[in-house]
Amino acid sequence: MKLLRASDHKRMPWKNGGGETVEIAVSPEGAGLAEFDWRVSMATVATDGPFSVFPGIDRTLSILDGEGMTLFIEGHRPVRLVQESDPLSFPADAPTSATLIDGKITDLNVMTQRGRFTHSVQRVSVDGNSEVELKGGTSLVLCHRGDVEIDGAALAAGDCLLVSNEVATRRSISGKAQLFCIAVEAI
Fold first, then answer.
1. Three-state DSSP state, 6
2. N or C: which end of the chain has fewer CB within 10 A?
3. Candidates 2.60.120.10, 2.40.50.140, 1.10.357.10, 3.30.70.100; correct CATH number of 117-186?
């Protein structure tokens, strides 16, 4: 288990130069935008426009803050993505643009190398004591809102717990928070 504090997340420009992203975790550690196996980041989107294109990458997007946006993904109908929406998966190499619904938003972006890794993203609400199931491979638990403790590790908003497991495990969890549970597995 490795605790990734919000204050330590890496800030960097978008691939297309249109904004800034906050990198939460990347594998291999220190990999750039052209060499990662998987990447988890947050970005503030303040204007309408195109997404960066990542050849051979699968992506899942979730809205963290703001009113949301409408995505125009080549070959698909427009998709309205808001905070209450399920995480949306789509190919990061499909030309994509977005129109903001009402002002800037912050999104959660999970990307994996197609054909080498798969990923899933699930929003989880915690209120009290329970358990969270972490799949085999690499799991990341991002505390979006509130405070939570997972097996003794205290997470505040923006913190992330990175867990590498050979097999699925259940972890004790307590607190009041909204989390995003991310699973990354090698194919």
1. helix
2. C
3. 2.60.120.10
